[in-house]
């Protein structure tokens, strides 16, 4: 009996602790729910939702500077075509990066809104650098429609019909009131006062009288403007300057000249240009003949089509001819590959396509890389004579100049007037000897003066 009495308080204590441990969470939940209901029932559900769901992930995507080529690791951010807050479509151009050779377009990877621009114009950016943030999704904002104006002739007639009676009424009422005023009131005096004949004319200043009869003093000569404009050199122009100076410092440049009678080629062009334009949709010019003649001469004289690579001479059995094209940003030389296998029409078509891409700024690195020989046509700008500079690592460059009417001794020994072009070949004397350079230019002259000879060379 005593044992039971002694253990009873302990059992009761353990039972109380168990009840407290099981009832406490329930009481706490009921108290929380009660307080939430009594204080702010609107905040109870969001609070629970936040406790059971993770926060949404950010939809912003960071777009980086794309890779451009193996040899190009950086460029200049030339222009933002879109601004912060603008909506862009997938693959729409957002920015332009200027490199040493070409302009690279940065496109949006998907449709969305620009939330942040991470670089400024004229900044130097490297491949892989963060460029801008794009919030994916959304839709393009609709353009606001302006209220349409009803320009129908019926409405114009109706409005004009309404306005005409008003004008008639106002015009008819005016003359009715005018006679009454004239009868009631005397004629008002005009504020204008006739000049009195007795009033003397204003005196001429004595200083003006003294200057009469004398010549006016000479005004000081106007000085011209002495303003200066400082513009940062573009990457392309910097690269051109670097390569040209490198060519001067590295190659042993020498230039040889010759004169070509263009009569036969001009007659050939006049005879077939309309037919070529009608059948093929391209203009027949002189460049195709010079490209074809140069490709033949390059095969006959392999040294002119060679280049130096370290301590080796590399001879090319193909003619990848770079054609110099002038653009607003500078001179570029897209490559006409395997020109030896093209005819006149195919050469003109390829040159026209490359020239259009150059003027539109759409040339790619593949269009520019390589080239074993260069042709530059300064004659289109009126150049009489000049020494073209090498496009390293090429060994030679052909310069075409203007066509001028000049006295010429023909094959019969008679002096005649013929259209003459001066051509120049600048060559690297480390690779090409003078004999090979002169022979090359003489062969080009021979083929241009008699285009039919091109059929004898495969």
From TrEMBL:
Protein name, per record: dihydrolipoyllysine-residue succinyltransferase
InterPro entries noted in UniProt: 2-oxoA_DH_lipoyl-BS (IPR003016), 2-oxoacid_dehydrogenase (IPR050537), 2-oxoacid_DH_actylTfrase (IPR001078), Biotin_lipoyl (IPR000089), CAT-like_dom_sf (IPR023213), Single_hybrid_motif (IPR011053), SucB (IPR006255)
Region (Disordered): 132-234
Top EC category: transferase
Extent of Basic and acidic residues compositional bias: 141-170, 177-196, 206-215
GO biological process: L-lysine catabolic process to acetyl-CoA via saccharopine; tricarboxylic acid cycle
Superkingdom classification of source: Eukaryota
GO-annotated cellular components: mitochondrion; oxoglutarate dehydrogenase complex
Cofactor: (R)-lipoate
Species of provenance: Rhodotorula graminis (strain WP1)
Family under the similarity heading: Belongs to the 2-oxoacid dehydrogenase family.
EC number: 2.3.1.61
Annotated Lipoyl-binding domain residues: 60-135
Keywords: Acyltransferase, Lipoyl, Transferase, Transit peptide, Tricarboxylic acid cycle
GO molecular function: dihydrolipoyllysine-residue succinyltransferase activity
Pathway: Amino-acid degradation; L-lysine degradation via saccharopine pathway; glutaryl-CoA from L-lysine: step 6/6
Pfam families, per the entry: 2-oxoacid_dh, Biotin_lipoyl
């Amino acid at each position: 009996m005593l044992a039971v009495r002694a253990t009873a308080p302990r059992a009761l204590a353990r039972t109380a602790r168990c009840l407290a441990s099981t009832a406490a969470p329930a009481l706490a939940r009921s108290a929380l729910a009660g307080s939430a209901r009594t204080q702010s029932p609107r905040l109870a559900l969001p609070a629970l939702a936040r406790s059971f769901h993770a926060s949404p992930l950010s939809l912003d995507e960071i777009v980086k500077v794309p890779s451009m080529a193996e040899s190009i690791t950086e460029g200049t951010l030339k222009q933002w075509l879109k601004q912060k807050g603008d909506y862009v479509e997938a693959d729409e151009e957002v920015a332009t990066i200027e490199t040493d050779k070409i302009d690279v377009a940065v496109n949006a990877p998907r449709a969305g809104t620009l939330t942040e621009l991470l670089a400024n114009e004229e900044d130097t950016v490297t491949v892989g650098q963060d460029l801008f943030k794009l919030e994916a999704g959304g839709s393009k904002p609709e353009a606001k429609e302006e209220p349409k104006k009803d320009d129908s002739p019926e409405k114009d007639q109706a409005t004009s019909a309404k306005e005409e009676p008003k004008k008639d009424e106002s015009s008819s009422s005016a003359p009715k009131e005018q006679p009454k005023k004239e009868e009631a009131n005397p004629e008002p005096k005009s504020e204008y006062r006739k000049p009195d004949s007795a009033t003397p004319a204003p005196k001429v200043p004595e200083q003006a009288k003294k200057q009469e009869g004398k010549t006016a003093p000479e005004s000081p000569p106007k000085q011209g403007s002495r303003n200066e404009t400082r513009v940062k050199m573009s990457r392309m122009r910097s690269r051109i300057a670097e390569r040209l100076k490198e060519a001067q410092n590295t190659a042993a440049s020498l230039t040889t000249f010759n004169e070509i009678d263009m009569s036969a080629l001009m007659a050939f062009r006049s005879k077939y240009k309309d037919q070529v334009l009608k059948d093929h949709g391209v203009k027949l010019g002189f460049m195709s003949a010079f490209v074809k003649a140069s490709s033949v001469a390059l095969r006959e004289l392999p040294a002119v089509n060679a280049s130096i690579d370290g301590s080796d001479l590399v001879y090319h059995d193909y003619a990848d001819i770079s054609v110099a094209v002038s653009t607003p940003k500078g001179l570029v030389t897209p490559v006409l590959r395997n020109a030896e296998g093209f005819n006149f029409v195919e050469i003109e078509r390829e040159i026209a396509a490359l020239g259009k891409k150059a003027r539109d700024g759409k040339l790619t690195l593949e269009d520019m890389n390589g080239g074993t020989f260069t042709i530059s046509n300064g004659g289109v700008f009126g150049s009489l004579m000049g020494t073209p500079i090498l496009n390293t690592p090429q060994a030679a460059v052909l310069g075409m100049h203007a066509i001028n009417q000049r006295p010429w001794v023909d094959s019969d020994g008679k002096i005649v007037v013929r259209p003459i072009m001066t051509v120049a070949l600048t060559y690297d004397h480390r690779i090409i000897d003078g004999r090979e350079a002169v022979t090359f230019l003489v062969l080009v002259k021979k083929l241009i003066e008699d285009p039919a000879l091109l059929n004898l060379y495969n």
